[in-house]
Amino acid sequence: MKLPAHAFTHGGKFHADDVFSAALLRIIRPDIQIQRGFHVPENFEGIVFDIGDGMFDHHAIGSPVRSNGNPYAAFGLLWQVFGPELVGKKGAEWLDERFVQNLDLNDCTGAENALADAIGSFNPVWDSQESKDDCFFRAVNFAQTILENRLEEVRAVQRAEEMVVKALPNVRDGILVLPQYAPWKTLLPADNNILFVVYPSQRGGYAAQGVNDRQTKKLRVPFPQQWAGMPEQELAEISGIDDLIFCHASRFLITSKSKSGALQACRAAIAAWNEEQT
Predict the structure, then answer these.
(1) Could you tell me the pTM of the whole model?
(2) Per the count of CB atoms within 10 A, which of 42, 63, 74, 231 is most buried?
């Protein structure tokens, strides 16, 4: 859908719904002119939201509801159309579940939402002489920054997924090696048999982290109990791995001075675990 140069929404007190709707439209088309009022002007040529009973208003009887029962507000209705253009269908669904729906619920049901409360605080107090429109656009600026950050979060997840998918064919002995740190936990295939993920540590050296079983939520293979929480010098002696620096007390994470040391630690953990199970 091509976004026109003009938009109209309701005047008076504003809420997170119309504010984030305006922020979304400005991200898509920075030069859009948004007008506020209590009646849509006759023959208005532009997009109308949160007023007027049109495509992007949710106040009429029979307004759309998501398949999970959560109602759409104006922001959700706009996001349904324009979100996929910004981050693709899968990314739009991801952000709808984690962000948009909560704001829609607040507007449609009054469900508590701290962000919606923060947006509401931009409204002028009852005896203020400030322009409600000026306050509205200050709130839109604030919301736009938040929404842009959330969009970049989605794109970052998409970039991480590309990295994980590219690395999967090179899995050996149940160990996935990534070229750099990325949020991989939710990106592994549902039917994966990966035991450890190795990646450059943000603190230097390399880290290796155990993978949790999706059903039991427990580590498929923990690092050896005798490594847990040991000081660096003792850890190297106990493990026989000179590069090993740290093993978390919960046995899900180690750090090493080198990639080879991290891989060696993973293989040692797998061997120890297999021996325990026999």
Answers:
(1) 0.85
(2) 74
